[in-house]
């Protein structure tokens, strides 16, 4: 809450007060996302309806598939940055949802890239009345939900102290854990809680970099996947030092390896392991899955999205590892045995790109079959 009050709330309030600034900020964001290869994004916006419509318009024009969330928050915020009441917050969320959907009806189905998302910021800033109303709205209007869940010790303790139950139970009580829901972080969830999310078909946005800054626990990724929970990879953009999903992939592997190291050390200290214990680390291929097909499944994209198969939306990046004429590696990549017809691209070369590749290796991005980066010449 200290970070939110000192930085996030102030920035959001400023954007809400200046439509011109909002458009400039969001246009730069769109350019950065495409540069980083992000063609689909789930976004927390601000509390003002008009500002979020600007965000949606910018993403649509940029060719990015975006799920835009107008924040809902009626308590425990800055006096100048909070909605007047639960009812006014619900009215604004409903209006935003309908207005954004009406913007899309003017487009052909294949061109509709932007959708609204109901976004209670997190339990501490939302009254029970507001959460109950959003749960009903999600069901009636068939609209997605996103929020933050069990992210940090102070937040978890605050909810328990104020509501008398955990925040996962608060969301569940108000029908906000559904197949349409994605919860970010979830670092303080127990194994039974993860199993409950699987039962509810609720997805998780795993943001390893921001968790390293804001949570005293690491997300139990291996356990979540073992329980069958849908997990996609996120950057949390403002919650770390990078909006590049490649850094999120690398961070996910590093965090998981630290967890595995701690598990092994505990086993050595007590002289044995727990029954049925498994390696909790992931490898680079699994991280790549979380950033692509795993994210598509979590977002509920059309069947096959995030993979190459007939009938699936063509969402793809063009990655170049080396100059086809000279054989020299591109960007940070160096190859001393250049690929050739006799020696094609190897798995080791792909892993090298995963480890140290950057924006210089990305020469194209397509979303739903249309190239959006670099911007095609008319």
Automatic annotation (TrEMBL):
UniProt keyword list: Hydrolase, Metal-binding, Zinc
Domain of life: Eukaryota
Listed InterPro entries: Amidohydro-rel (IPR006680), Metal-dep_hydrolase_composite (IPR011059), Metal_Hydrolase (IPR032466), Metallo-dep_hydrolases (IPR051607)
GO biological processes: guanine metabolic process
Cofactor(s) demanded: Zn(2+)
Residue ranges of domain Amidohydrolase-related in the record: 17-369
Classification via SUPFAM superfamilies: Metallo-dependent hydrolases
Coiled coil residues, start to end: none
Keyword Cell cycle in record: no
GO-annotated molecular function: guanine deaminase activity; zinc ion binding
Pfam families: Amidohydro_1
Gene Ontology cellular component list: cytosol
Record protein name field: Amidohydrolase-related domain-containing protein
Organism, as annotated: Sanghuangporus baumii
